[in-house]
Amino acid sequence: MRKRSGYLAMVTRQTFRTTNRNRERYRSLRIESLEGRVCMAANALDGSASLDEYDLAMISYLACPESYETAPVRASQVAKTLSVIELAADATRPADSTPPTVVDIIASGSLWGPSFIDAVDGGNSNGLGYSLNAGEILPNAGIDRFYIQFSEPVVGFEAPNIVLLGSDPAVDYSIISSLSYDSGNMRGLVQLSRSISRDKLRIGLSDSITDGNQTKLDGDQDGNAGGSFDLRFNILVGDSNGNGSVNGGDLTIFGRALNKTSGEDGYDPLADWNADGVVSSEPDNDLGLFKAGFNRSLPAREPSPLGFPLG
């Protein structure tokens, strides 16, 4: 018998009242959540939807599937029992008024090595890439994807509710990207068709994104539903010291980490410009990227404003 998932899987104890000792129809169902935070009582059963001994066997199995020795259960009883339990749960489940928020924006590359990702995931063990901070400059090549981590499952992760803008108004990264959403991990993905090596960027999410109760995204994180999310950051391959230009100061950082591998003392992912987990002077690896970008700076122009209200 397949274990039920979702809300029903949280049921840990059911208590039944009977009108007599002769297994007459059970008249009420009590459900308690796994963490004891919600205690619900529902008089969900009446003369047209009542429980008999077969229903009781099924409910006991759902509550304790690991320890319950299954008794013969008529197939015709299964659908009715589950329907009654779910109706009771739906009728008494407390409404969720907490708005969804953006927990993290993670920059990554589809060709990045796993050892490099381990070095840059910020100690959060997200296993994906850099957790972005406002205004920071990422110095690594190959950035072509952005993960958006939400606080709860959301609806509406689709264009035009997500935008990625650069300094050139003629370039709309949203057009050259694909969007997908992983409801199990509460995480969206913006996948670009090409990587970005130099730009000032803005990623925005509209508060048209909601949770399952239609509560709007709290993008500005003021504690109230509504308000779009807006994050400014930069990419400049080779800019290890984050001053907005690729120059000799970055080469100094590179020299200190030269020939070091991710996990070794002295390894610096900010000098691992090709993001393969090794700081290398080979011309087709890190040093080659530095030479290609030497004396380049971030664009002077700022990204365009978002196309939807911020609050």
Which features would summarize this protein structure in a list?
single chain; 311 residues; alpha+beta; Immunoglobulin-like; four-stranded mixed sheet; disordered N terminus
| Radius of gyration using CA atoms only | 27 Å
Name the CATH class of the largest domain.
Mainly Beta
Helix and strand content put the structural class at alpha+beta
Domain tally? 2
Structure description:
By secondary structure, the chain is of the alpha+beta class. The protein folds into two domains: 6-92, no CATH class; 102-243, Immunoglobulin-like. The protein is built from five helices and twelve strands. The protein has helices at 53-63, 75-92, 114-120, 248-257, 286-293; strands at residues 14-15, 29-32, 39-42, 102-108, 130-131, 137-138, 143-150, 162-165, 177-182, 187-196, 198-205, 229-236. A five-stranded antiparallel beta sheet has the order 5-4-7-10-9, with no helix packed on it. Strands 6-12-11-8 form a four-stranded mixed beta sheet, with no helix packed on it. A three-stranded antiparallel beta sheet has the order 1-2-3. Strand 2 (29-32) and strand 3 form a beta hairpin. Helix 1 packs across helix 2 (75-92). The chain starts with 13 loop residues before the first strand and ends in an 18-residue tail after the last helix.
Sequence-ordered SSE layout with sheet pairings:
Elements: E1 14-15, E2 29-32, E3 39-42, H1 53-63, H2 75-92, E4 102-108, H3 114-120, E5 130-131, E6 137-138, E7 143-150, E8 162-165, E9 177-182, E10 187-196, E11 198-205, E12 229-236, H4 248-257, H5 286-293
Parallel strand pairs: 6-12
Antiparallel strand pairs: 1-2, 2-3, 4-5, 4-7, 7-10, 8-11, 9-10, 11-12
Helix pairs in contact: 1-2
